[in-house]
Design a protein that fits this description.
By secondary structure, this protein is α+β, with helices and mostly antiparallel strands. The protein contains five helices and eleven strands; from the N terminus they run αβαββαβββββαβββα. The chain has helices at residues 14-19, 58-62, 149-157, 200-210, 261-275, and strands at 31-56, 80-93, 115-135, 167-168, 174-177, 185-188, 191-192, 195-196, 216-233, 242-247, 253-257.
Length: 276
């Protein structure tokens, strides 16, 4: 890649990691995997609704709107509450004045009408949510030495927004024409400059879909950013078998070194002994 490309500082390589003096095992890795974490920034509005049956004065019942509440503006993520008349259920005697409309004091319940209107009211509430989440590749979570990597990466990135050069505008699989005559298209999973997302897209989609539970999403703005990672795996003889090289916000590289499985077992045994 052209070094002048704004993405270049965020693409970790073994050569760069060594040139920047990162603490890597001296031997060559037996495997290099280019994967990517996914940072999602989202603003959502979920519309929730419920109904209740109430008795109102005829005048008050007529003043309640019956149309569908307006949807939020495209970039308006605010809490709002609406009330709509869903159904007329018929008149009811006013128990407050027993229909004594001739009384000089106007009944506050029926407003002097002598009866009430039983109606079904539909309440609609728009609830805004902000999502800021980082998803590490799923395969990393299966390696005990790297259990803490996702938390370490979140601390390293902090609360700052990722650079726009890492933004992903389309994370859908794309169709690629096969080279064989008569062959159909094959679907290719998205990547970021050769770094596979390795399950992070599915994790993010599941999180966003969960916000629709109990209502429906009526407004959203979602931004997704790739965070390229270089996963290095070393032979059992090296002190650290698993190393993940990742860029900071500035593009400088850092290395997260997972513990040797034997060290993990020793640490776990020591903890058990100290508790006994």
């Amino acid at each position: 890649m052209d070094p002048s490309d704004p993405v270049a500082p965020y693409l970790p390589t073994l050569g760069r990691a060594r040139a920047e003096g990162l603490a890597l095992p001296p031997g060559a890795p037996v495997e290099e995997r280019r994967v990517a974490a996914l940072v999602v920034l989202a603003f959502l509005v979920r519309r929730e609704g419920w109904t209740e049956v109430v008795d109102l004065s005829p005048k008050d019942a007529l003043q309640i709107a019956t149309d569908e509440p307006p949807l939020p503006d495209a970039l308006e993520f605010e809490a709002r509450a609406h009330r709509r008349l869903a159904e007329h259920l018929g008149p009811r005697p006013c128990t407050a004045c027993a229909g004594a409309s001739a009384s000089p004091v106007v009944c506050a319940s029926c407003m002097g009408e002598g009866h009430l209107r039983r109606v079904r009211i539909r309440h609609v509430q728009d609830r805004p949510f902000e999502v800021r989440e980082l998803y590490a590749p799923r395969d990393l979570s299966f390696v005990p030495a790297l259990f803490a990597f996702e938390s370490a990466l979140k601390r390293a990135l902090g609360a700052a927004d990722p650079p726009e050069t890492l933004r992903c505008l389309d994370l859908r699989p794309r169709a690629v024409r096969t080279a064989y005559r008569g062959g159909g298209d094959r679907m290719v999973e998205p990547d970021f400059h050769g770094h596979q997302f390795a399950g992070t897209i599915e994790s993010a989609v599941a999180t966003l879909d969960a916000f629709a539970a109990g209502g429906r999403i009526v407004a959203q703005e979602v931004r997704a950013y790739a965070w390229p990672l270089l996963w290095l795996r070393y032979s059992p003889g090296e002190p650290a078998r698993e190393v993940v090289v990742f860029p900071e916000l500035t593009g400088a590289l850092q290395a997260f070194s997972g513990a040797n499985p034997a060290e993990l077992e020793s640490s776990s045994s020591g903890s058990r002994r100290s508790r006994s």
